[in-house]
What does this fold into?
Amino acid sequence: MKHYIYSILLCIIGATLTCCNSSTEEFYADIEQDRDNDEITSDDYEYQIPVIFHVLYQDRQDRKQYVDYTRIKELVAHVNELYQGDVYTYQEYDNSENIHIRFVLAEKNEQNQTLAQPGVEYIKWTGTYPIDCEKFMGDNSRRYTKYVWDPNEYINVMVYPFNQTKDESSITLGISVMPYQGAGYPQIEGLNNTKRTKLSKSNLKYAHCLCINSKYIYYESNRYKGITSESENTENLIYDANATLAHELGHYLGLHHVFAEKYNKPIESYADTDYCTDTKSYNRPAYNTWLSQYIENKRQEAESAGKDVIVLLSDMISRQNDTGDTWSSINLMDYSMSLNYQFTAQQRERIRQVLYYSPLIPGPKKERPNTRSTETATDEPLDLPVIIVK
It folds into this structure.
């Protein structure tokens, strides 16, 4: 997930939000991890996906490096609420679908040893720091595979401060791999086909994971605090780490951005490129230009009147397509400014297809259709077609 930096601090008028709070403890206690042998009886079957956070730090006294364990638990709790749907609902906007996934903090490591702190390991990093997230994710030399636990049993989340990109006008909050199309299973558009039914950790040359920028890990919207109808701090909304993690998990489970893109980059187009026709596409570069001008106009108006700059959330979350239709951005697979809480029915279906059929995803699979093709198992590293997205 990437966000653009604008030249002034913003003050946002809040929107009315209905929400409910839940305990952070319930997401790892007494859970039978990924339940590989379960039979999937319906599309409402609830997946339970173990997650392991690998916190890469150098200074243990820096909370943005050695992230508080309580914060890790909060992130999982809030992401579960977002994937549950109908937990955070704005009165004037559509509800979200229930994906029927529960992310759980891993209780045991790959050696079946019980973790002292479920779902997290802290690793003292000796390399260049902060870390270049694109080089980390794009390395194909097996240098970083040692940090990844078996992706068939866990979702791996790397947590570390990202170094600043060459584009100083933007900040990367998260980055993820996309899943694969499994051979012999129903086609899932927009995913690379490995021509294999199964993959193992030993087949990987790269770190199959997602990464979160720990510089912003304590930011979050007021909605998680149960606050309704109160002005929202802009930075908390833009850098909301809960929405960032939910967004990157969306990529990890097969979702693309809702705006028009090519080769996973925003483009000057209104084309529908996310393979979900019930999401609304728009021209992201054009929106960025409009938003910059909107903020500058508000700044000039305030300066002329000798008043503080006030911008409206309802204005900044507005989107428009090439036919003039307008709507408010609420989808989790959009960039800021957005309310970032919704999954649509087709996004839900796409995630479910990945859970059912894609390799390197924890949890039970649907039976593979009978085919004449045979597959020879191998533990050798493979040249896999990796897609990396922000």
